Amino acid sequence: MSTPKQSKHEQILSTANALRWEVGERLHDSTIESLYKEAERIAGRSVAVEGGRPRISFDRTLDRLVTSRVFGFPLMFLLLAIVFWITIEGANVPSRLLADFLVDFAHPFLKETGTSLGLPWWLNGFLFDGMYLAMAWVVSVMLPPMAIFFPLFTLLEDFGYLPRVAFNLDALFRRAGAHGKQALTMAMGYGCNAAAMISTRVIDSPRERLIAILTNNFALCNGRWPTQILVATIFIGALVPPHLAGAASALAVVGVVLIGIFFTFLVSWGLSRTVLRGEVSTFSLELPPYRPPRIWRTLYTSLIDRTAIVLWRAVIWAVPAGGVIWLVSNIHIGGESLAGLTIGFLDPVGILIGLNGVILLAYIIAIPANEIVIPTILMLTVLMTGSAEVGGGAGVMFELDSETATAAVLHAGGWTLLTGLNLMLFSLLHNPCSTTLYTIYKETGSARWTWVSALLPLAIAFIVCFFVAQIGRMAGMV
Amino acid sequence: MTTMNPQQCEVCPVNKDAKLVQLGLEAGNFDFVVALAGNPNVGKSTVFNSLTGLRQHTGNWPGKTVVRAEGAFSYDAKRYKLVDLPGTYSLLSTSTDEEVARDFILFGQPDVTVVVVDATRLERNLNLVLQVLEITEKAVVCLNLVDEAKRHGIVVEERVLMRDLGVPVIPTAARNNQGIPELLRAIAEVATGTFVCKPKRFPIESGALHKAIGKMTAKVQQAFPSLPNARWVALRLLEGDQRIVDAIRSGELGDLTRRSALEDSLTTGRKKKVYNEHSQAV
């Protein structure tokens, strides 16, 4: 850059500095004022309103209802419960059909093909008993609930309900010292925590954004919904007469969601009063008009963009995890399998917090993806209880074609209502998956905060489960 | 069966005579850059999807698009890159979103800026339109949600609006692909220079300010004769906007006015820098 040009630039800046004193602070306000006036004038010339406005008054009435002090929250939970109930009731049959095909029919077929091709037993086992079965299991357990849950959630979103939820929760977040828009990032978390980390960019203040990031984990992601729904069906649904089982399980899942929201507020509150102290920023959130959702379009996008992507991710992680499970079950050290040794080692800690070694090992194997927790638990349980008549030998994810069979395996593994309850809590509160942690690292650029976001929830999960276990045992819930 | 809207043929991928080819993510090698701006929740992502054929998730809540999405389409044998900016109410850069949008319109120098506005809330949306027109001359107003406006009994005279703003105003209902062919034609006309925009700039009334702004604008104009937005730069400087002060000091603003062959490459390099700062792979 040549010198005369440089000085010309500096000259402009000094003129600006001099004139700034002249115009003073009025400049900003009068510019905005002129702008608004002009917008009003132009709009006035081109907009004509005819007759009454039935739609707008409909919107207002609906808004008064869904954001009312009395009905706002109950309506929110009712909607949530209905969505879960439809998911739970609807997923049963297709889940069984998928398992019939992928596990009962395709698995033996593949294994026989492997044998007839002359594959060595370990390769045949690793490929089909480990990798293939893990994949088949994930698909049959996850696909039906996701294919029902995501479109329903997307329909609510397209209709315009989410900003009303944010509106309802705003006051609570404010009192917790967090940003009102955290309600939106939390809602994203119910889909996927990793995606929600990116969505926290809507929060401008770094302090409030960190709070949103650190507490997003308490919003159950789609990898954890199937765990919650299955465990609730087996342990909570079984407490009531069969015709009420679906509703009871749905309510239990809503309860877990509420506990998650409670911890979101509690931890936000704690953070904003300790390490992340500061002012709450104000913002304006526009309640958009209700729009009739385009059902087919929504079904298409939520199936293709959400369900397929999430399922694909689950499958990608389930395949190597299946391999790992098969290996740890089949590699023996001193007569005991690697899995057995680890479980024996983890068992005391697990039992102390109302879980068991199997669950803890499953959570370690499932760090990459929460989706594979349930299949891993089932597989390891069968292995440990040695119920060879149910399973298909070491490292085989066996065929369970209904919840009753799953329940039988879990009960055989020494599971009680308390184990189920603690598993639901642990699944809600524990550390986020590795994809989410990586996203947190990318978004915050800080290894320290990434560690905090992994260890803080994990510590909370251990503490909560510990107390629930102790209280449950004292109350006689073995 | 529903009757086909004849307009839809022009944007239908099956129609071989259609001028629009949705290129999805193939954003390399383009002739023109088009920016998509607008208030939150006015259907920018829907417009984006119907132009590019991408299926970016659209949700009915403000602030959904946090990362800048890019896509491409080709129309009448020209390739366009389309950049979906985050929704903002203004360009006064009080938040990151506003800064991303403003920096892109100013420094990214899109060939056309499409401002999507909500026909049911025109007055408030015009605040942003007027601010965009302060920065760039090459703009098209996409008057979206006219179907919703009609249901509410609101009628917008787009010709009056067009005369008042000095840029093309295209009524659309992007959810149903209504008006998209017309929007494409307007974008192409502005990009190729077939249509010359004469944006109206809003008057600033206060007498004392008028003089100071006039003085400052003259100064800026003198230093950068071909700058299309001298008054806006003058206003920002008077307000002490640090980003603009820096841009003057570093010569970045000067570069925007001279696109010689040599400097073109520099500008492309800079454009890239602006992307890297604000866009992140999802």
How would you concisely characterize the structure shown here?
Chain A is mainly α. Chain A has 19 helices and three strands. Chain A has a two-stranded antiparallel sheet.
DSSP summary: helix tally of chain B: 12
**Strand arrangement, major sheet of chain B:** 1-3-4-2-5-6-8
Which stretches of chain B are poorly predicted, pLDDT < 50 over at least 5 residues?
258-282
Question: How far is the first residue's CA from the last residue's CA of chain A?
Answer: 79 Å
Radius of gyration of chain A: 27 Å
CATH architecture name of the largest domain in chain B: 3-Layer(aba) Sandwich
Q: Largest sheet of chain A, described in full?
A: 2 strands, antiparallel
Structure explained in plain terms:
- The complex is a heterodimer of chains A (478) and B (282).
- Chain A is mainly alpha-helical and 478 residues long.
- Helix content of chain A is 75%, strand content 1%.
- In chain A, β2 and β3 form a beta hairpin.
- Chain B has 12 helices and 8 strands.
- In chain B, strands 1-3-4-2-5-6-8 form a 7-stranded mixed sheet, with helices on both faces.
- In chain B, α4 links the parallel β5 and β6.
- In chain B, α3 packs antiparallel against α12 and α8 packs across α9.
- Chain B starts with 5 loop residues before the first helix and ends with a helix.
- At the A-B interface, α1, α2, β1, α5 and α6 of A face α4, β7, α6, α8 and α9 of B.
